[in-house]
Specification:
- There is one protein chain.
- By secondary structure, the protein is an alpha/beta fold.
- It has six helices and nine strands.
- The chain has a seven-stranded mixed beta sheet. Strands 8-9 form a two-stranded antiparallel sheet.
- Strand 4, helix 3 and strand 5 form a beta-alpha-beta unit.
- The protein is globular and about 40 Å long.
- The chain starts with a helix and ends in a 5-residue tail after the last strand.
Length: 166
């Protein structure tokens, strides 16, 4: 009986430190969040419009495990030069088709498309799916979401905590 208050305090501390909110891995085309990309519902329009996005939190975990992940920055050169994710390839949206023809976009490796706010990534996603790319996702919220989550970017040639560029 003497240990009851001690055990109660330990239990309450454990409960307070245990995360209760689930960190979802993917965001489906309709905004639903899921743990497995296959759990996303099919788009009511067409399959080519089914778009998937990976959360910044989950992407950081995956980058630690899989060195084959290709980060593809679709922004213009000046945007890329200001800041970008470490290790990202730069292919502006307008050069996607040419990059595909010259095999600058690997078909086998997982590809994460990103821009500032997912608009260009959505266009690139649809176009790459049309020409046969299967293993592609968008970065949910683009580079802004990445930076807002507190992850590092390359700015002025240095790895640092970035400030979203609007």
């Amino acid at each position: 009986m003497k240990d009851l208050p001690f055990l109660l305090i330990i239990t309450l501390l454990f409960m307070a430190c245990t995360p209760t909110q689930t960190q979802y891995k993917y965001v489906c085309f309709n905004g639903a969040t899921v743990d497995k990309i296959s759990d996303c519902p099919v788009s009511p329009n067409t399959e080519t419009e089914q778009q998937y996005a990976i959360t910044p939190q989950y992407l950081t975990e995956e980058l630690k495990k899989d060195s084959a992940i290709v980060l593809l920055d679709l922004r213009e050169k000046d945007e890329f030069d200001k800041s970008h994710l470490e290790g990202a390839k730069h292919i502006p949206l307008g050069a996607i088709w040419k990059a595909h023809l010259f095999k600058r976009i690997p078909r086998e490796d997982p590809i994460v498309l990103y821009d500032n706010d997912e608009i260009r990534a959505s266009v690139a996603f649809r176009e790459l799916r049309k020409i046969g790319y299967k293993n592609i996702v968008k970065l949910a919220g683009g580079i802004h979401a990445w930076q807002e989550a507190g992850y590092l970017v390359i700015e002025d040639g240095q790895l640092q905590k970035g400030t979203p560029i609007i």
